[in-house]
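Deliverable D5.2: sample structural annotation.
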Amino acid sequence: MKKKIILIGSNGFFGKNIINFFKKKYIIKKIYRRDSIQKINFKNYHFIINAAADVYDEKSMFKNNTKLVFDILHKIIKENKQIKFIHFGSSGEYGAANKQSKESDLIIPRTVYEATKAAGTMLVQGYSKNFKIKSIIIRPFSIYGLYENKTRIMPNIFRHFLIQKKLNIYDGYHDYVYIDDLILFIKKLITENRIKNYGEIVNFGSGKQFSNLQILNICEKVFKKKSKATYIPRFNKIYDKKVWCSNNTNLIKKFKFKFKFNIEKGITDYIKKYKLNTII
């Protein structure tokens, strides 16, 4: 019998990739932002994945990053406490770290987004322990790949090379992981029955960080072109920081996860898919 999954956030970056990968393997109930989860019956489902998030609209962040999590948990308690819950938190919850972030570190959010995501994580932890809900909170670092927001650095770099769009490169450091590796981790959680605890947190990052200039240089190699980008030696966003890197010991040792893609292999694969699927 195929596993039955409720996917919340089906039209987002993670959601679209989850659907593409799992649509032939599992029965997926797709939930979009316009849908009310109160009208969805959680009975007879094996997993619920919350990939919904509001990253850009501060006015909607509490509703979509915190209140939604509260509502999901209450539905689980009422309708199906046997369902296993995969929730996406955020590496931003750690705040301004000065070293690799590990799951046991204190969370110190600095923005509305980081605070509402941190609140969602704490709700999952508290309710899971209190009501014995088997759940896992994935804290992804800088996931890149097909369907990501077009304002992010890699789509901007791609357009710079493909259509000569003007490009400014600011300072920035991130622990980049290709979306396909994240999907393979979700597959591992489901197929190997890895969700056994109540509100467990696992970082999902490579353990290495790259500067924006390093990412540009890698793209130059892949495109076999020299860029004409303008380097601006300062951070562009208030939440940027010099250290944005995962301690992934838990991911590697406990979950025995092996990354399929390094940064160059991931970017190369992404560019191929981008050219085939994207209207520039």
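Annotation notes: The two ends are 41 Å apart (CA to CA). The first helix runs from residue 13 to 22.
The annotation will be released with the project's public dataset once the embargo ends.
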